[in-house]
Amino acid sequence: MNTIRHFALTARRPVRPLSLVGLRRQRPFSFTPRVQATEQNNTFLNNLKHTSIFQKIADKPEALMALRDFAALMKEKGIDAGSGPPSTMQMFRLAANSDFRNAAQRVVDELKNAGVDLTSQDVMQELMSLSKKPGDS
Question: Is the pLDDT of residue 8 over 50?
Answer without folding.
Answer: yes
